[in-house]
């Protein structure tokens, strides 16, 4: 009885120290720590680290490739842009020259048209003047003839066959000249 | 007659002592052998709770990484991101502290960090065991690193490695003083390395043990306070578990670096 009580007391006394310093369990723990650690290192080194290595490598490779591809695409885009700018510039120059040429041609056409028109007008004016002149001459002739007739008739009636035709004509001419002089004098 | 009375008294005292809740926050550091394997009387291979939880930690590290990397994609999922972050974290430590020539030590440092981290963390599971709270476990790791650094020093530099203990640019007169100091500080490395981790884990779990004891035994009106503290302190322990694993890893790299490059 007493011995059992002592044993209990002894057990209690033992557990009051740090259990970590109980050396009877050192050897097995040391052994299993070494084994466990090397097993873990083997497993990680064999299955985990290469997998992570691979994925990181392939990711950085992919990123590098993407950057290169983007760079190429950018260069291509730059090239295309320059190309289009060039084309637009050429088109603009072409348009400008076309417009200039059209303008020059239009000016020439207009000048030609004006010249033709002027010529035409001059021609018409000339023919119109000629017509007017002719009509005037005709009219004068007609008036004179009418006057001669009238004068002859009048003279015939007045003098009764004493005046010959040439004499009458000269007299009328005289009279007309007189008439014209008077008319000029009236103006 | 007298004898029996004493016996009865002793028995009664024993019964009372057994019935009363006894605070023993160190109880959960007790290594208990589950299977005793002791060939030729040498207790070398016994499986204890410490060994069991070491294995559980190793399995947890391995299975976590295998599961996280089961279908690695260029665009990582959540777990893969965590696994890669852990990998890059250790690679950063190795690059920073060993630098040139540190690549061959990456698997060692990587395994060491996660071994210590998961031993620290699995110990926080109720009714579990913290392998890193055992001095012999941390000492085994620390001595392994210590001998590795000595081996590396002589392997890389031959006898020039002994120059490591002679600080450069010192007057010759001071050398008899400085060389022993250097040697002592070098020999203290495995001690400080192992004791730091073991003491941190032991202290933290002891505090948790005390808090849990009070929250379990005090009347309900007083028990919420230690219980609340124990919740907060568990979070602190998670943090300390990480920090200690980090320090252990960093110092390992520093020691390897000293042996590789001999700068002092």
Account of the protein in words:
The complex is a heterodimer of chains A (187) and B (264). Chain A has 187 residues and is mainly alpha-helical. Chain A is 91% helix and 0% strand. Chain A is built from 3 helices and no strands. In chain A, helix 2 packs across helix 3. Chain A is rod-shaped. Chain A starts with a helix and ends with a helix. Chain B has one domain. In chain B, strands 1-2 form a two-stranded antiparallel sheet. The longest helix of chain B has 43 residues, at 175-217.
Topology (SSEs and partners):
The complex is a heterodimer of chains A (187) and B (264).
Chain A: H1 2-15, H2 26-159, H3 165-186
Helix pairs in contact in A: 2-3
Chain B: H1 2-19, E1 33-35, E2 47-48, H2 49-68, H3 78-97, H4 106-122, H5 135-157, H6 175-217, H7 220-261
Low-pLDDT segments of chain B: none
What is the number of independent domains of chain A? Answer: 1
Give the % helix of chain A: over 70%
Straight-line N-to-C gap of chain A? 183 Å
Shape of chain A: rod-shaped
What is the tally of beta strands of chain A? 0
* Topology pattern of chain B, helix = H, strand = E: HEEHHHHHH
Secondary-structure element pattern of chain A, one letter each:
HHH
List keywords for this structure.
heterodimer, A: 187 residues, mainly alpha, rod-shaped, B: 264 residues, two-stranded antiparallel ribbon, 7 helices, 69% helix, globular
Short description:
Chain A is mostly helical. Chain A is 91% helix and 0% strand.
